Amino acid sequence: EIVLTQSPGTLSLSRGERATLSCRASQSVSSSYLAWYQQKPGQAPRLLMYGASRATGIPDRFSGSGSGTDFTLTISRLEAEDFAVYFCQQYGSSPPWTFGQGTKVEIK
Amino acid sequence: EVQLVESGGGLVQPGGSLRLSCVTSGFTFSAFSMNWVRQAPGKGLEWVSHISAASSTLYYADSVKGRFTISRDNAKNSLYLQMDSLRAEDTAVYYCARATFASGRSDYWGQGALVTVSS
Asked: Which residue among B47, B59, B112 places its CB closest to the CB of A98?
């Protein structure tokens, strides 16, 4: 099973600042099979990114990068609606498909 | 508009059973694989199970293998999760989600159904 470790656990930033979230895998993951989700309190997760591609309706301030075992989600300029918890997920050819434990982006 | 609506959650005693349903609309259900994903209170996400469009491929997380059964009825645009031999650690919100490219990646999610296993 591929274990995903996200860091930091919590990121305290202000609106307009840049957010950099890390996701590290215990073994190599194809970048095509690494996704990011956003979850707000009381809501279901929402797909943000898969590989370097944004999901439908996701603004271009969100970007994904990385390869091998190290992946990054970047939010270029935080908006009020971006304060949430973010999860990475690997979904390679064989299950189990695992998630990271999440990074909370909170208002400083 | 794509919609997924779960039902069937509730309180059940350890060792009991529960069946979750997910009714979908707004897309051609029979063309898509589906996933169940759960989230224990205050915790992260855990992929639970996957079913292919024609029900020919089924996958389960080790934590539920042998106890949970995923199924679907394409004529009713519905997905199911039969949960038997429930344990306290199965307490979670269970989400049904549409899979993309027959994988664990999910692009649309329901609002979730809370399952509480407690005596």
From this structure: B47
Contacts with A98 from chain B: Cβ below 8 Å = 47
Q: What is the dihedral of CA A102, A45, A56, A54, to 10 degrees?
A: 10
Chain B residues near residue A33 by CB distance under 8 angstroms: 103, 105
Cβ-defined contact of A99 to B61 (cutoff 8 Å)? no
Angle (CA) B66-B69-B75 rounded to 5° is: 165
In contact, B63 and B46? CB cutoff 8 Å: yes
Local confidence pLDDT in tens for the 119 residues of chain B: 999 999 999 999 999 999 999 999 999 999 999 999 999 999 999 999 999 999 999 999 999 999 999 999 999 999 999 999 999 999 999 999 999 987 889 999 999 999 999 99
Please judge whether B45 and A89 are an interchain contact, meaning their C-beta atoms are less than 8 angstroms apart. Answer: yes
- Output the CA angle B65-B66-B72, nearest 5 degrees: 80
Instruction: Spell out which residues of chain B touch residue A51, defining contact as CB-CB under 8 Å.
Output: none
Query: Which of B104, B106, B111 lies closest to A95 in CB terms?
Result: B104
- Whether residue A8 has a cis bond before it, omega within 30° of 0: yes
Q: Do residues A62 and A105 make contact, with C-beta atoms less than 8 angstroms apart?
A: no
State the Cα–Cα distance between residues A62 and A44, nearest whole angstrom.
19
Binary contact (B45, A97; C-beta < 8 A): no
Distances (CA, A) of A43 to A85, B44, B71: 11, 13, 25
